[in-house]
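Data deposition worksheet. Section B asks for the primary sequence of the deposited chain exactly as it was used as input, without tags or linkers unless they were present during the calculation. Section C holds the resulting structure in token form. Section D is free text for depositor observations; keep each observation to a single sentence. Incomplete worksheets are returned to the depositor.
Section A, Depositor: J.P.
Section B:
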Amino acid sequence: MNRLNPRNIVRRRYGEGPLHLLLMAASFAVAGYAGVRLLAGDTLGVVLWFVGAALVHDLVLVPVYSAADLLLRRSLGPRSGLVNFVRVPVFLSGLLLLVWFPLITRRTERYEPASGLSSDVFLGNWLLITAALFAVSALWLVVRTVRLRRRDTNVRPSASH
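Section C:
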């Protein structure tokens, strides 16, 4: 192993490869640009928004969804392999809620005059999308279960003589 290889130096110092570092830097740059554009030059507001988002995520949201995940895994018991069939739709639905929260909760003082569109449809659409996510996840679980049962019934024990 060549210790002077730039990838090895980055991995040793950063903990991941250079591609990961580049993608993280790019995502922070895009998030910073979006924050500056959304808050229209209010630098203090941008800084407070980023710091507040990090604090709320780390101090409030991580404990809440960690506890919910632990409760879900404990309630499933030995079938805890099924937890991803709940995790994925909950995560996607929560992400949609986070992104579209002002429109879903009809906090649209600036949206309606600027767009000329009503915000009445967002709550219903989010609920329908959430239901569809859970339905697809349930269907996927059914297909997986049927395939596993078929595979188990098709495997016959070999007769040892």
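Section D:
Helices lie at 6-14, 18-38, 43-76, 84-104, 111-115, 122-154.
The chain has a mean pLDDT of 85.
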